[in-house]
Structures are given as structure tokens and as C-alpha cells.
Design a protein that fits this description.
Layout: H1 3-10, H2 13-41, H3 49-70, H4 78-83, H5 89-93, H6 101-106, E1 120-124, E2 132-136, H7 138-154, E3 163-166, E4 183-186, E5 191-194, H8 201-214, E6 218-221, H9 223-235, E7 246-249, H10 256-265, E8 270-275, E9 282-285, E10 291-293, E11 298-300, E12 314-317, E13 328-329, E14 350-351, E15 362-363, E16 369-370, H11 372-380, E17 389-396, E18 399-405, H12 408-425, E19 431-436, E20 451-453, H13 454-458
Bound molecules: zinc ion.
Zinc ion binds next to loops.
């Protein structure tokens, strides 16, 4: 936890409200920058195939040349960069090695461009439980934010619209177990921050009441959190008295059981966003229901039908000069559909929604359901590194075990902070054991799950 988060957590509500509104002012400025950026790349939404390929070719060439020149891991491929003059960039790219998280974790410094400074760090773990830090220049970071915002813009955002968020915002301190107001409101940028961590039968009804009063234009959340909220509301007979323009989701796939629970309560189109924590690739769902890749952040092999689609996907950054990852395997399978024509009129390449594991919830003794993304949040917001993989397992009603696959020194350095972070997310209701292991159980699907609730599986 950063120092500011600690101050925020200890502050009384009126001070926290001030912080949230100040943050909102900053958000208004960021939104202006996103809108300028999006206006600048709006033309890429309608480029024909040849125009798209030419654009990406040029960006790929720049990235490859810079990587070979400045990045230790890629310096041995200088001959390939020379080939760019006379061969197709896609043929050249195909000769670079595929890399993955493990390649980077083994020697992160080898992927940093020499002389890079003033960069920002994006932390990710996906739901694979392998934390990774990716460094990038500020423009790359900003571009990813803008592209994620584009989903909301496509869903009909207008200035002045309210947005309710039910994601990993730690807006209500976890020391408050059962808040009367499980939210914070920012008037400056018209955001309602709902606390995912505090969802319970009681708080859900209060949240429902707030939504009925404020009538936000958008409700945005993790599918698992939205499902939990809607189930609680439904069980208590609560009804929402208005319809938002759209329900927005990200970070997890939307499963049928989740969509049904949400549709029972909210009558609005549901739009997803796929974005990797590495900020290399993203896709927004349009009104026709298709996920359009962004084209300008990263190149997914297979998106043009020129290179074969590698499964899981291989992606090359088009913008990040600080830590330019080439043919990086995200861990997600991305099915692309070259040549597909979307009814919305956008020519941006289309992909299928990413299917990952249907993660379990952790259930606390008082019956709170803690969404997988909330647990992931507690996991990656520790300054932990060098973890090959992790897993959270609930075997009984009162305790969870966190398994970490890492070296002994690293384990000893991080285990206490991680245990405290996990205990907070479970409101002290669960005993948390942190255990070192040299392997994490792999499910029958062949991919390890991050959260395993053995109680639910036995039912
Ligand atoms: Zn479309």
C-alpha cells in the first residue's frame, strides 16, 4: 500500500470526500486529453485493410529498430533489423523468439531500453497469479487509458453523464466493516465509487437506493461484482426504477449466469472491454456486439490474416519504447476474424470475447461473497515481485491458504504484507495462511486457476 492510501484509509469521511473530488478534477483533465487523443486516431476506425496494414507496418518497423538498438535482450537481433529494408516486416517479426511472463521475470532488466527515464510502471497479474511489472513511457500509458475510455464513448457517453463504478476502488476503508454508505461520490467528475469490497445483503440494498436516487447513465463493474450486487438486490425484492444507457464490464469475461443475474435487474445493453494489464492490446465492444481491436496499441499476430494466429496470443507493442515487448505471449487466447465486416461500420479488426477460467468466489463466515477480482487486487497491490505463480484456496468456512511459487528469500520478504492485505480484504473474518510451494495445482483445463473454492466445488 502506498503512503497516500494509508493516509486516505485513516481519514474521516469528509476528508476522504475531498480527496475523491480532487482526484475527480484531475480525472476531468485526463478525460480532455483522452478525447484529444481519440479524435486524433478516429480515422483509424474506418481505414481500409491496406491502410491498416501500412500503418501497423510502419509502427512495427520503428519498434523493432529501437528495440534492437537499445534493449539488451534484443541486441543480438541487429541483423534482422537490417533486413527490414528488403523483407516484409511480418516475415522479419516471425523470426523473433516468442517470449512470455516467465522470460521477463527471469531477467527484467534485459527488457528495459538503455537510457530510458521518466517512465511509468503498470502492474498486472491477470488472473494467472503471476505478478509482472511492465515499464512504459507516459504516452503509452495515456493511450491505453484513452482506448479503454473509448468503450464508454462508443456506448453513448455525453458530457455531464454520471458513471457508477463497482470495481477495485478502495474508497471505503476496510477497517469499517459494515458502512451505512458503502460508496464515495465525486461531484467534480460525476463518479459514484461503490465499494466492491463491502458488498453484502445489507449494503446492496443501500447501493440500490443510491442508484435509484442518482440514476447514473452507466454502471460499470467486474462481472462477478455486478452479479453479486444484482443477486443480493433480487433476493431482497429490490427493483431499480430507471435504466442506464449501458452496463459496462471489464477485467473478467461475462459468463451466462452473470449476464442473466444482471439482466434480471437492469434493462440496458451490456458492453465489454478487453484490455491487458501490460497495456499492449485492447478491444472495445461496439453496439453490434463485436469486440474491435484498437489497432494502434499492439499488433496481434493473426489480426490481418498475414501471420498465423499463435495461441495463446502473441502481441507486439506498437508504442512502448521503454520496454518494447516483441511477440509477447499474453496468456489469453485471442481468436481474430480477418475480413469480418461489422455492421457498426468500423473496419477495426474483430476478435472473439476472451474466455478465461470461471473463477470461484471466496465466501466469508458472515456470508460475504468476495469477487475474484477483489482478491486479485489485494494480491497485486502489494509490491511483490519474483512470484512465478500463486493461488488462493478456500477449503473450509473460516480460512484460506495462499500458495506462492517463489524462492525462500523472496517468500520471507513478502509473506507478512501479503497476509495482512488478504486479511483486510476478508474483513478479518478469515484466517489467512501464506505457504511457499514449488508448484501450483493445475486444473483439468490445463490452466491453473487463481482462486479455488473447494467448498463450492463439493456442493
Ligand atoms: Zn462493430
Amino acid at each position: 500500500m502506498g503512503a497516500f492510501n494509508t493516509i486516505y484509509e485513516r481519514s474521516p469521511r469528509f476528508l476522504r470526500s475531498l480527496y475523491v473530488n480532487a482526484y475527480g478534477l484531475n480525472n476531468v483533465r485526463r478525460l480532455r486529453r483522452w478525447e484529444r487523443l481519440l479524435a486524433g486516431i478516429a480515422y483509424t476506425e474506418r481505414l481500409d485493410h491496406g491502410g491498416q496494414v501500412a500503418l501497423v507496418e510502419g509502427m512495427l518497423k520503428d519498434v523493432i529498430r529501437r528495440a534492437v538498438e537499445r534493449v539488451p535482450f534484443y541486441s543480438r537481433f541487429s541483423a534482422l533489423a537490417g533486413d527490414l529494408e528488403r523483407r516484409s516486416v511480418f516475415d522479419v517479426l516471425n523470426e523473433f523468439p516468442l517470449i512470455d511472463k516467465e522470460t521477463i521475470i527471469a531477467d527484467p532488466g534485459a527488457f528495459l531500453a538503455q537510457g530510458a527515464d521518466g517512465f511509468v510502471v503498470s502492474r498486472t497479474s491477470g488472473t494467472t497469479g503471476t505478478p509482472l511489472k511492465v515499464c512504459m513511457d507516459r504516452d503509452t500509458f495515456l493511450l491505453a487509458d484513452a482506448l479503454w475510455w473509448r468503450r464508454t464513448a462508443w456506448a453513448g457517453y455525453e458530457e455531464g453523464d454520471w458513471i457508477a463504478r463497482l470495481v477495485g476502488d478502495p474508497v471505503v476503508p476496510l477497517r469499517i466493516q459494515d458502512p451505512d454508505q458503502p460508496w464515495m461520490i465525486s461531484l467534480t467528475d460525476r463518479r459514484i465509487y461503490l465499494s466492491t469490497f463491502h458488498l453484502s445483503a445489507r449494503t446492496a440494498v443501500r447501493i440500490g437506493g443510491l442508484l435509484n436516487r442518482r440514476k447514473p447513465a452507466f454502471i460499470m463493474g467486474y462481472p462477478s461484482s455486478l452479479e453479486i450486487l444484482c443477486r443480493y438486490l433480487d433476493e431482497s425484492g429490490f427493483r431499480l426504477e430507471w435504466s442506464p444507457k449501458s452496463v459496462l464490464f471489464s477485467s473478467e469475461p461475462m459468463y451466462d449466469h452473470q449476464e442473466q443475474a444482471i439482466r434480471k435487474l437492469i434493462d440496458a445493453p451490456i458492453r465489454g472491454l478487453y484490455g491487458s494489464g501490460e497495456r499492449m492490446v485492447s478491444a472495445a465492444q461496439c453496439a453490434s456486439g463485436n469486440y474491435h481491436l484498437s489497432l494502434v496499441d499492439g499488433y496481434v499476430e493473426g489480426q490481418f490474416g498475414i501471420m498465423d494466429n499463435v495461441r495463446p496470443a502473441a502481441v507486439t507493442t506498437l508504442t512502448n519504447g521503454v520496454m518494447p515487448l516483441i511477440r509477447y505471449r499474453l496468456g489469453d487466447v485471442i481468436e481474430t476474424h480477418p475480413g469480418f465486416r461489422c455492421e457498426c461500420g468500423r473496419t477495426l479488426p474483430v476478435m472473439s470475447p476472451v474466455i478465461t477460467k470461471d473463477e470461484d468466489w471466496i465466501v466469508t463466515p458472515s456470508g460475504r461473497m468476495i469477487s475474484p477480482s477483489a482478491v486479485v487486487w489485494a494480491f497485486i497491490h502489494q509490491e511483490i515481485s519474483g512470484i512465478a505463480s500463486g493461488q488462493v484456496v478456500q477449503r473450509d468456512g473460516r480460512s484460506v491458504t495462499v500458495y506462492l511459487n517463489t524462492g525462500e528469500d523472496n517468500f520471507n520478504r513478502h509473506k507478512d504484507a501479503l497476509r495482512r492485505s488478504m486479511e483486510r480484504v476478508f474483513f478479518g473474518e478469515m484466517d489467512v495462511d501464506v505457504v511457499r510451494t514449488d508448484r501450483v495445482d493445475v486444473s483439468r483445463a490445463g490452466k491453473s486457476r487463481f482462486i479455488v473454492n473447494e467448498l463450492r466445488q463439493r456442493k
